[in-house]
Amino acid sequence: MFASTTKSDISTEKTHQTQHYSNWQSILFWGVVLALIATAIGMRLYHLGVPFDRDGYDEGVYWQTLRSMSAGNTFYQQIFYSQPPFFMLSTFPGYILFGSSLWSARLGIALVSLLGLLGAFLLGKALSGRLGAIAAMLLVIANPLYLAQSQTIEAEVSSTALSLLAIGLAYLWWEHPEGTRGLFYAALTGITISLSVLCKLLSVSVLVPIALLMVARFWQIWHKQSGTRLTGLLPILVGITTCILTFAVLLLPYSGSYQAMLQSVITFHSTAAQVYSGSQQANFSIIQNALTSFLTFTAFFGMVAAFIRRDWRVVPLLAWFFATLYLLWHQVPLFQHHLIALTPPLIALAVMGIDRQSLQSKETSRNVTSRVTMYFTWIAIALIMVTTMINIQQDR
Length: 396
What we know:
By secondary structure, the chain is mostly helical. It contains 16 helices and no strands. It has helices at residues 2-45, 58-70, 86-97, 102-142, 144-149, 156-175, 179-197, 207-222, 229-251, 258-275, 282-291, 294-308, 314-329, 343-351, 356-360, 368-395. Helix 6 packs parallel to helix 8, helix 7 runs parallel beside helix 9 and helix 12 (294-308) packs across helix 14 (343-351). The termini are far apart.
């Protein structure tokens, strides 16, 4: 009787210690996340209102577009606008609310860019747990091109941030594909896909990894019992529906100027591609220079680590990377700010090097394969930290 009571007391004490340790882990995790968000906001506000064009020409054009919008003019009618409408629509409220100045115009971009931080958090957590979430946030915050575009009135960072958010939500849906959470994640994924593409058409590459996740989910549903298949299909149908509805709602106000919109958004760029077709050969060196970075090496290591442990979630991310490369190769003319589109897939591949199970398991020392996986995880963490430090030096 006495021995039984003693064992019960020890078990209760161990349970309390575990809960206490878990609580401190949660406090530390959320404290780091809040500190990273505060750091990201401070980095974006630093010298936000410098009185010169940060990108030669485009920024001044977009600023004049915002001024024209505040005067009551409309896209594709009084205003020539060569992008889908959501980029300016997402920037305009901040421009109006904070004084209709160059600073307030850039503030709208900076605020939208923080959605990429949320996307990195969700994607990192879905792929590699809490450590993956922090690693992905670090890589986004410190990335020099992402930071520079977050302070510039151009469409690239808005579309990139929403693409990253869409992929993060898609992988959360993949983890919880059914029930209320499955419906919620699928609906938000559909909405953010539309918003991303309607910022800039270059973001259409985000459809590739999400389509692969859907195909894999269809395969899972097909092997389920016939009576439960409809439940699995419902979130996918909801996601597709919300995507289409978001497109329709945002484009409906411009239905009267449909032809002008097509000419501005599509024909204008296709004509430019024909005129500057001779410059496409230079795209190879531009892309090569962009990929000659420590982030690319870290992403390659993460990809290898994922294949070694047979984590097939890396396949859609690789497809995303190559689809983006293909679009950039055909982008004429290709400018430096377009290369920000490579940042999200590279960050996602880098985070794939972290295996949360190997860090949580207590049996890794007894299993050679698990031990190798744990070593790969620590190397991936070290590479991510080195990448972050290099990027911070460039930011300074």
